[in-house]
Give the backbone structure.
Amino acid sequence: MTDPTGPPAADYPAPPWKARGVLWMSVLTAREAPELPADLSPVGGRRTLLVVLARYTEGALRYDEFAVGSPARRGRRVGLFCHRIWVDSAASVRGGRRLWGIPKELARFSWDAETVRIHDDNGPVAALRLGPHGRARVPVLRAPSSGFGRIGGERTFLCGQVSGRLGRGRLGVLDWHPPLPDLAAPAPRFTLSVSAARFVFPAGTRLGPAGSPASGRTGA
């Protein structure tokens, strides 16, 4: 795979990144509470994990993305703090890190019918089985798709948006490897999906100093 940190020239689009594709979001429970930086507080329970799988098939960049994070807040801002996030585009890795401070890593996504397997240079990361989108779907406009990052010593915030047709989805965990957080159970609490999705990811906002991970705590 290509070195995601080079070349130094910016070969990624300037924000906003606009794309179309499909999105799955599942809520799972970690066996133990993942650690959050001290300037962020957990939302929805300290052991709550959000698993996000996206396929950006049209737009500024075309790539697959798999993220595992904790819903978190800083003041009035709420978003996903990614413990790990992988994509199959080196340009997305560089853009994600340099524009928003999101620590994207490079991986391979192998699709077979309704199964996707993610591998990085260290070996298998996860395997997921996706069910068909539910028939009952509700149009949504400008739903938040937000996340926290870090550039240098500053906390960053990406206030993205997604629109499309929202409904129940299915996502099953077939395989799950370290360094992902251990799961209390492989079955998600629930899964939502957005079909015919449109994404907008604007320039990020700098929020001030970022806290370092605090030993023995998961939020401020």
User: Anything to note?
Assistant: Residues 1-9, 214-220 have pLDDT under 50 and may be disordered.
